Amino acid sequence: MDELVLMDQLKEFQWVSFSSAEGVRYFFDRCQALQVPRNTLQQIHFTAIGEATAQKIEHYGYSPRYIDPAGNGSSYGNALNQLIPAKDQVLLVKGVLAGDQLSEQFTHGQMVQRINVYNTIAPAEWDHHTVERLAAGQYDLLFFASPSGFHNFSSLFRSTLQMNLLKIAAIGPTTAKAIEEQGLRVALACSGPTVPDVVQSFESYFSHAKNHLP
Question: Which of 43, 95, 181, 196 is most buried (CB neighbours < 10 A)?
Fold first, then answer.
């Protein structure tokens, strides 16, 4: 779905689903640029995965109809499938690299479409000293906050680093699954996507590791 279709057809959707705060920002900024009427947006039920995404929706002046507390795609998709009636039109706001697992979870006859509003690209430059430290094992954990972040990292460094030796942490099950699908082991999958969740997961991990030192 391109921008002109978004401007012309957004009023046909009863639901707009966000999977990231970045998606929220790009979506509403694009709506503003295209002069989508506010009363059109006010008729839509917005849904969010996680508190950070919900807060971004509220920043633009709208209240999410549903917030997935677990912050992972599987529970989010199951909840939306139960919440949204058959034949309602649903717009999934995504990044280009995001998978289609969410759309596949709608099984009750909802009319689901997807719009890609941003693209996560690999950096042209990076800190070579940091990469050297990773190669030498001079780190505790390598943390990935999204599948796209992992895929970009892998595309840049899979010929430089021994990927199977990396000590990897993932922000949640969706990111962990993307990493494991590439044959890599995830040492830590955080319990949730919020900062307190991540901090608690790291504290538990390192406490357990310290207690099991030889």
Answer: 95
Residues 1-40 have pLDDT tens digits of: 566 666 678 889 999 999 888 899 999 998 888 888 999 9
Distance CA 15, CA 66 (A): 10
Which pLDDT value is given to residue 208? 84
Higher pLDDT, 7 or 176: 176
The CA radius of gyration of the chain, in Å to the nearest whole number, is 19
Q: How far apart are alpha carbons 49 and 65 in whole angstroms? A: 11
Same domain? For 59 and 78 the reply is yes
Other beta carbons less than 10 A from residue 208's beta carbon: 10
- Sheet harboring 45-49: ordered strands across? 66-68, 45-49, 15-18, 89-95, 111-118
For residues 145 and 60, state if they share a domain: no
Q: Helix-strand-coil percent breakdown of the chain, rounded to 5?
A: 45, 15, 35
Mean pLDDT of the chain: 88
3-state secondary structure of 156: helix
